[in-house]
Amino acid sequence: MLTRRNLMAAAPAAALATAAAGTAAKAQGGNSAPAFTPFRFGVLSDPQFAPVVPNEQGTRFYANSLWKLNEAIAELNKHADLEFVVTLGDIIDRHWESYNHILPVYDRLQHKKHFVLGNHDYDYAAEWIPSVARTVGMPAPYYDFSFKGVRFIALDGNDVSTFGPPKGDPRRELAAERLAKLKESGAANAQSWNGSLSDKQFAWLDERLTDAQAAGERAIVLCHYPVYPANEHNLWDSERIVELVKRHPHCAAWFNGHNHAGNYGAVGNQHFVNFCGMVDTPDTSCFAIVSVHADRIEIQGFGREENRVLALMV
After folding, report:
1. Rounded to an integer, what distance in angstroms lies between the CA atom of residue 204 and that of residue 151?
2. What is residue 11's three-state secondary structure?
């Protein structure tokens, strides 16, 4: 177990293999597609920093996330081959001023940064809501980018929620309706701290997945919230999202945070990985390095994060 005292001294797992098999020969003509070039990136989730004491239950150590993040970044900086580092939401826990403390720590990262936003990233005065994506350097609340044959699709699970849209936005009224309907059904994820996609973003996700397939790319979805397996932390509209993902078999994985304990599920060759929350525990961190190969995704976990090998459809 990696702790504050031994995190930086601990030797990481053996270097992940870099060789990757070429893709299968085309059905017609016998020609092979170009070989897939493996690459690696870092994953952080739920630092949830705030300059406050731990919660009464002793399960959230908000202020400790500054040194945890600092040491995680120091470790990630040792891996010069990382292409970028993704944070899967809940950068802060509360108070707009918390960004002034934690974003300078991110400035020490020597790799490109990508963020998605979580529910706690909106826990401050409503007038600041329109500024949060720009403040953390996101191009938009949801966006996509391609890298070496993989389309990364970053979603905004706060799109239709009781806290994400600005006050007076009709999405807040829609969120109240969706939440009330879920509560009536007794759904475990009928929680005010969850959210959902607007129909506009849902259609955009379908379009981006379709576009990735047309470009011959795999897809990895990045979101703060889980959608599978069933869990109280899941997006309110998780069922329709899973059905959409299943219609796009080239979508290899869904990566998320939010459930700090971590979780995993699979539907066929599609993997749903819930990364652990950094804010939990007083002295144990968690983060990961992900290696993408033609036939698998390898996750090298640090601290509380597990090692995983996810087989891919070839």
Report:
1. 14
2. coil
